[in-house]
Each structure stands twice: as C-alpha cells, then as structure tokens.
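User: My collaborator and I are trying to settle a disagreement about how two of our proteins should look. Neither of us wants to argue from intuition anymore, so we agreed to look at predicted structures for both before our next call. Could you fold the first one, then the second, and keep them clearly separated?

Assistant: That sounds like a sensible way to settle it. I'll keep them separate. The first protein:
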Amino acid sequence: MVDREHLMTRSWIQFMLRPNQSNRSIEIASTILRVAFGCMIFTIHGWHKAIDAYTHFLNGSEWTLAQEIRAMGLPFPGVHAGFATVVQLIAPVLILGGLATRAAAGVLTVLLCGAIAQNLHESRDPQLALIYTIVCVSIAIRGSGRFTLDALIWGDPSRAQSNPVPKISQT
C-alpha cells in the first residue's frame, strides 16, 4: 500500500520537473512578463527621458540623451533622442496593455539594439540592454496573448478555429 505522503511528494516532483502543457499557465506567465516589462521600460527608462527632454525644451538645459547620441557620431541627435524618448514612452504602454504588441515590441527591439550600441560606445556594461532586448524579442515573437486588449478587440486567438479562412468552392 502506497502512503499518501509519498504520492504527494511524487506528484509535487513531477509537477516541478515536467514541462508545462497548460495553455492557461503559459498565458498567465506571458501576461506577467509582458506587464512587468512594460512597466519597467516606461518607469525606469521612458519617464526620465521624457522629463529630461521636457526640461531641455522648457529651460534650454542640456539633453543627456542627445549628447550621448551626438558622441556616437549619429546625425540629427535631437531627432534620434526625440524618437527614442517617444518610443520608450508609448511602446511600453502598448506592450503593457497588450495593444499592437508585436508592432510595439518590434520598434522597441530596434531601439534597444541602439541602446546596446550606445552602452558599448560609452564603455558601459550592455548586459541590461541585452536582457531587455531578449525579453522584447520574445514578446514580439509570442505576441500579446489571451489577457490583452488585442484579444478583446480582435478576439481570443486561443479560441480561433484551426482553419478560419473559408474555402471557396470551385464549381
């Protein structure tokens, strides 16, 4: 006779070691990653760049991001800095809400590649930018998922039929 504690231990070990087959668990994990990533990029990177840009245009103070872009030798540093600031404010909000997630993550991925190059140029450790880029590429590939505004607008992709395009008869 197998005791109950042995079965529970074995069940827990199987749960921890077996690959996850549950779509719901995958959707919940993807949602947590997407929301946390969007919050981090917006609050840690986008918001301070927006404040710096606002201060620059209001008081004429130096814009740190534009200076760093100028130091990299890129033309039109103000335009590049403005683009980076807008992307780091808007794309994370879209990713967080799951609205146009793949497009927002794609644009943000390109920007993050620039951040990697900027870190390397400034002799800073690019590890954080690399991690952000990997997460962003993963979100772009995965898409928004089930618990998103995209799913509310376009319908839940997990409930779609296997062949949603109707076949045209050739009579």
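The second protein, kept apart from the first:
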Amino acid sequence: MKEYTEQGFPQELRTVQLPGGRYMRIIDDFVYVDSDKKVHSAPSGYEYNGGNVPRWLWPLIGSPFTGKARRGFPIHDVECGKAHKAPTLQERWAMREAADKTLLDVCKYEGVSLWRRRLIYRGIRLGACTVLFQEVPNPPPTLSAPPIPCNAAQPHHAKDEAHPAEETPAE
C-alpha cells in the first residue's frame, strides 16, 4: 500500500454520470488522506449516489456531484456501504458515524463554509438514523429483537385478565 504523508487527494476524481442522473461511476481508484493521515479509498467502477442527499436540498447545500464537497461523497458512500454490512447494530452505527465525520473532514479541507458543513453533516447524520431500523443480520446478544421504530405499536405481552386466553386442547 502506498504511503501518504499529507492530507488531501493524491489524484483527481474522475467519474461518469449514469443514465437517470442520480448515480455516478468512479473511473479510476480514488483516495483521500484525512487530517489524521488515515487513507480512505473508493475503487474504480464503484457507483455512488452522493449520500442520498435529496434533490430538494441541493439548492441549500449544493449538488453532491458538483462544488467543493463533491470529492467527499464517493468516499462517504463507500464507507457507508461497509457500515451497512457490519454484523451488529453498534458496529453499523460506529462505522456510519466515522463515514460521516470523514465527509465533514473533506468539506473542511475543501473550504466548504461552516454553515454549509453543518447543514451537510446534520443531513447525513439524520440519514444515519435509518441504520437503526434496518434488519441486522446477527443481532447483538444485548438485543432480544430488532429495534422498533418510535411510531410502531409495542406488543402487549401481559395477559389481559378481562379476556383470558383460550385453552388449547391437549393432544
């Protein structure tokens, strides 16, 4: 693996837009070295959608495919993809948070204004909450069941004394 000593992008991001305009494909391997000198990469051929930023938000924060923050989104999307494959909810959450912080680091490096960085970060952190409601392949032992969305009704397990359960016939 190549050794990098400075924060930044050792090469330019080269992409091609896919039909429909919502996805881009990376042409050449792409690398970002963060402020802690950690290397983040996105492989050639990877298709990304720019962090699921809704189009209605683009006028405020900019398109994820143009502007100063554009080089951070492919790295962010690759890392989010890895996070979604993590075996436990805790690992998913930690990896997603790290991906979001990497995008924030890119935005700062690229000179994105403070108010725009904050808006981008809050938007992607809000998106991270969806990780909690996706099925976890191997739930951690501390969870007896997958998380239930806040608006979902909790099952009632206590026996209702007014309507006792019917007895099942013995076989």
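Some points you might bring to the call about the second protein. The longest strand covers residues 30-33. The radius of gyration is 21 Å.
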